[in-house]
Protein 1
Amino acid sequence: MREAESARGRRVVITGAGIVSSVGSGREAFWDGLERGTGGAARIELDGVGEITACVIGDLDDDAIPRREAKRMDRVGLLAVVAASQALEDAGSPPIDPGRIGAVVANVHGGADTLHRSYAEFFLRGADRVSPFTVPLGLTNSPAAAVARIHGLRGPSSTVATACAAGTDAIGLAVSLIRSGRADAMLAGGAEAPVSPFIVAAYMQLGALSTSARPPEEASRPFDRARDGFVIGEGAGILFLEERGHALERGARILAEVVGYASNCDAGHLTQPDPTGEGPAVAIRLAMAEAHVDAANVGYVNAHATSTPLGDLAEARAVIAAGLGDAAVSSTKSLHGHTLGAAGGLEAIAALMPLVRDRLPPSWNLDSPDVEVALDHVVAPRAAAVDVAVSNSFGFGGHNAVLVLARS
C-alpha cells in the first residue's frame, strides 16, 4: 500500500489537531467528551426566532489573539484561529518556511454575526451606517484569511464552500497541495458560526432542524428511528498536515496518515440526498481505491449522519453498498451537533481517536436503530485496534467527500 502511495506523490501525515467545539476544546478534551458523552446542546434564545436547541461554545479561549486583530474578525474567524493555533501547538510549533505552509479552511455561511448586524443597520438606520468591515469579515474566506494573517502563512491559502462536505474537501485539497510539492505543510479543516437568527430561521423554514421536545442533549439522534432533524452547532476543527519525510526529519509525533480522499456529486436534488446512496458509495470506493485498502481493512467509519430521516438512511445504504457493512460506525454529531462547513474538520479529528487511543467514539442517543439497514453501530465506548478509518461528509447540492486515514 505505501509503495503505491509514494509513487503517486509525497506522503501526507497528521502531526497536529486543534478543535473548538461545544463538547470540548483541544484534541484530548474533545476525545474525552466523545467518550464520556458530553452533550453540547442547550436551549438558547435567538432574537426574532425564539427558543431553539443548538450546540454553542461557552468560553472561547482567544486571549492569545491580539486585541486589535480580534476586533477585525467575526466569531467564525476567532474559532478558526483558536483551532489553528491549537493544531500548530499540538504539532510542536514546527519552524517552517512561511512560503511553504498555507491554510485551507472550509466555511459555508461566512461571518454570520457580521452580516446579521449589517443587515439590521441597513434596514433600521440606512446605508451609510453599514460597517466597512462587512465585506472582509462577512465573506466565506474570512476564517482562512484570519488564520493565514495571524500565523504569517504565505503558502497556498484557500476556502472551500461545498456545503456540509466542505471541511473534508478542504483537507483533501490541502493533501493534494502537499503531495504535488506546492507546500510542505498545511493547516486544513473548517470553521462555522451559524447560530445567527436569519440562518437559523432559514433552516427552520427548510424543515431541517430537530423540533423534538426531548431534553436538548437528546435531540440529535443519528440513525435512531426517532430522529427528526439536525441540531445546528458552531465550531472549528483544523488538522496540521505535513509531508511525511519532513515530519520524520524533525522528529515529529505522527498521529496518522491521510492515505485516501475522493469527492463526487450526485447532481440531483437541491437539498435531498439520493435515497439509494449510490453517489456516496462511489465516493467511498474511490477514496479506498486511492488508499489501496480493501473494505475488510476498514475498522471504523465516522458517519456524516446528521439525524435527518432521509440523510441517515441514504448514508447507511451507501456504507453497505461500499462494502463496509462489517465496519464499526458512529456519528459524533449526537454530541456536537451539525457544524455545517466545519463538520469535516471536527469529524476527521473524531476519526483519529480509534487510530491514536484505540477507542471508538459512540453514537450517543441511539436507543432504537433504524432496522431498515443493519450496521455495526457503536452505541457505547468500545476498545478496538483500528488500522484504517473512513470519514464521510455529504452536503446540499449532492456534494460527497470521503477521507481515509491510516495508523502510521
Protein 2
Amino acid sequence: MNTVVDKFIKYVQYDTESDTETGLTPSTPGQMVLAQELVRELEEMGLSNVSLDENGYVMAVLPSNIDKEVPAVGFVSHMDTSPDFTGKHVKPQFVKNYDGDDIVLNKEQNIIMKVADFPDLKMYTGQTLITTDGTTLLGADDKAGIAEIMTAVEYLINHPEIKHGPVHIGFTPDEEIGQGADFFNVKKFGADFAYTLDGGELGELQYENFNAAYAEVSFKGRNVHPGMAKDKMINSINILQEFTAQLPKDEVPEKTENYEGFYHLLGMEGSVENSKLKYIIRDFDMTAYKARKKKFETICKELQLKYGKDNVTLEMKDQYFNMREKVEPVKYIVDIAEQAMKDVGVEPMVIPIRGGTDGSRLSYMGLPCPNIFAGGHNFHGRFEYVPVDSMQKAVDVILRVVELISKR
C-alpha cells in the first residue's frame, strides 16, 4: 500500500492548472489525464460504481460493511491547481526534521522561504515538510486532499475490521476558477452529506464561507492627438482611476481578516480608447455583500452620467454563497468532524473560509458539505508547503469520521 506521501508526490506531477479562457469543462486536458489515473486506481482497489464523465468528474463508492442502515458520507477534492502560478514540472522537496529557520528553496535563483514572512513555519519545527523548488506552486491545494481521500479508502479496504457505512468519493475539475460544481451530479453521487478536504492548516474545520461575486468594469474613451486634445480627448484610464478612487482603500485582502469582507482588484488593462478592471467582491454577511455590489452599481451610474452611458459598463455575476445557511440545519455533520479531530489528537479550529470551496456550491445544490483541512499553507505560489504529519492526520480524521457515522 502506498503512503499518503507517495500518492501526493505522484499526483503533483500531473499538470492540472485550470484556465478561465477555454470555456471547456475540464478547462485543461491535464485534468482529464489525472482523472483517468484516479479512475484506474479506484477500479484497482475494487470500489463500486466507478465513473468518469465527459466533464472530468470522478465518482466511486465504497459499499457499507455493516448490517444496519447509516447515512452515506461523501468526501470531495478538486484536481485542478490555480492558474495564478504555474503548476507544470513540479519538483517537490523534502525538508526533514525542520529546524525552524529560513528554507532555501532554490539556491541558484536565491529563492528563500523566510520565517519572518511566513511565521506559521515555526509550528512545524522537528517535522518533515514538503516544499516547492521555488519555480512552481506545489499543488497541495488540492492534491493533498486527493491523496488523503485515496489513502483513507485504501486503508478501509485493507482493514475490514473498521466498520463503516457507504463512503462516496468525488473528484472535481476547475474548482480554482469557480466552476468545480458546474456539472456535479448530486443525485448520481448519492451521499446524504459530504466533506471537502481542501487546503487549510492542521485542525481547520469550516462551514462558513464568503458570498462571492465577479465584476468587470469597462471604460471607453476617445483618442485625439495630445497636442490638439483640449476638450476633445476622453482618456479611459482616467475614468478607470476615478472608479477605483471611490472604493474604500482599506477594504482589500491585504488589510482584512476573519469576517471582514473586501474588494479585490484582480487585474487591469488600459489605453486611451479602452480600459478594463476585473474585481472579485467578498463578504460573509448577505446584507453587506449586497451593499458591496450596490456600491459598484452606484459608482458606475455616477460615471455614466458624467461621461455617457456607453462609456462605462458593468458586468457582475454571483459566484457562490455562504454555505452556513445550508449546513446549520444539519449541524451535527460539523459536530462529527469536530469530534473526529479530537479523537485523533487534533485541536479543531472552527473558522470561516476566507474564500470558497466546491462545498459552498454543493451545499446549495442539496449536498451539505463542510470543509476539513488538507494540511497545506501558502497556496497558489512558490512558497506553498505541506507538513507530512498534517496529511497523515487528515487521513486519520477521515477514518474516524467514517467510524463515528457508522455508530449513529
